[in-house]
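$ run holo --ligand "zinc ion" --emit tokens
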Amino acid sequence: MEMTETITPTSAWCRAMQRARREGVKPTKQGDGSFRVPSVSKPGTNHIVTLDQAGHIVHCDCKGWEHGGRSHPCKHAASVALAIMFLAGAHITPARSDPMPVPSLSVSRGQLFRTAR
Ligand SMILES: [Zn+2]
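-- output --
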């Protein structure tokens, strides 16, 4: 990922990020630059997501990462990815759809409102 402005996550990362959002997984940045993510399956415990010098996520200590790694990231890593992108102010490409459709003033009322005929 050379570009910092626009990030295009793979579908596996997108799915993991959606899961993280849905389950409200929220990472906490630690002093050493790694992130602590509360475990959902074991409340009260945390998983540690570590980054390399370039800020890329390289490891999570959960079982999911052990099996999937970067190609099938866990929700902890995904929640950290979301946090990093948010802090960087980066755009996530799949979330950028067409500009909001602006209702044209030239359309008739019937096109905007469902009216009884
Ligand atoms: Zn994990």
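-- notes --
Residues 6-112 form one domain.
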